[in-house]
Design goal:
By secondary structure, this protein is an alpha+beta fold. It is 17% helix and 25% strand. The chain has 1 helix and 4 strands, in the order E-E-E-E-H. Strands 1-2-3-4 form a 4-stranded antiparallel beta sheet.
């Protein structure tokens, strides 16, 4: 499989869906955005920063996203105070 980062993408043209939640005690709710990564050999997504849409998005296969979601509950305490 070629690198997902080798695929040409115009982040501004991507059709993002926002996912929000958390950080509800401040004026800035925590959000990220997902869009399909066209041209990938396997299902893949762009993971963008909703507060900085001009920033280059992460690129992940759907399997990588599934692995992250599955692993997160066991890892969460390492990254929170």
């Amino acid at each position: 499989m070629s690198s997902l980062y080798d695929l040409p993408v115009d982040p501004a043209a991507a059709s993002y869906t926002r996912a929000c939640g958390g950080n509800l005690t401040s004026d800035n709710e925590a959000c990220f955005q997902l869009a399909e990564l066209p041209g990938a050999q396997t299902a893949a997504v762009l993971v963008g920063d909703s507060k900085n849409p001009a920033a280059a998005p992460l690129r992940m296969t759907v399997d990588e996203v599934d692995a992250l979601v599955a692993a997160w509950p066991a890892m969460r305490d390492r990254y929170t105070a």
